[in-house]
């Protein structure tokens, strides 16, 4: 599918961001723009600052200098307003074990002020690929893939302009990964800006419109998908391996 995002506004706007934890400079002039209706994957070695980037968008940490805007809102100044515009899937999705899938969705939507009817929730669980017999089961026995489906159903229902994903496919098998990626594309096609932090190069190449490599606290290279071949995965792998080795050194 051709996906022209050249004129879309940036739902995620990060410009010249600098952030240190005490003396440790983690982000150093980071610039990253994610237009509405597009998916950017952020790759980088362990400790490169990927999760910290998400934390600044969520207003959990404040940068020392630079600009961060989420749908035009500075999360450093108005964290609650920014978070209302964000659906966030952390690596280990926090759901309630003793509640059913529907009860989890109902409760989480109530917490974010986005209450929906049961029929709307079950439609979203179905769209997320959760089988009907699981809807009224407690989450205690769910696999990671099933939990991700509940979480993305909630994200779908919140209809927010920004979706942040932290390592969403780690621990998912290839089938579950493909299903998850299809859902992320569906969210993107609704006009949401998606930023996905990942080590999973294949998944990034499958789902993203752009891939940014984070190294030394900034994006050192950004590649865009083009045509039917999308990305040259071999070249990306070589690039990624070099960056990871440098960070580990
Ligand atoms: N709250 C904190 N206080 C101090 N240092 C921190 C804090 N959070 C992260 N760091 C440090 O900042 C650096 C970047 O961490 P971050 O979690 O953003 O990296 P990452 O790219 O997400 O790594 P990974 O791929 O391992 O999850 C690391 O060196 C980490 O130890």
From TrEMBL:
It is an enzyme of class 3 (hydrolase). GO terms for molecular function: ATP binding; ATP hydrolysis activity. Keywords: ATP-binding, Hydrolase, Nucleotide-binding, Transport. Residues 12-241 form the ABC transporter domain. InterPro entries: AAA+_ATPase, ABC_transporter-like_ATP-bd, ABC_transporter-like_CS, ABC_Transporter_VariousFunc, P-loop_NTPase. Its EC number is 3.6.3.-. This is Putative ABC transporter ATP-binding protein YxlF. It comes from Sphingomonas dokdonensis. The gene is yxlF.
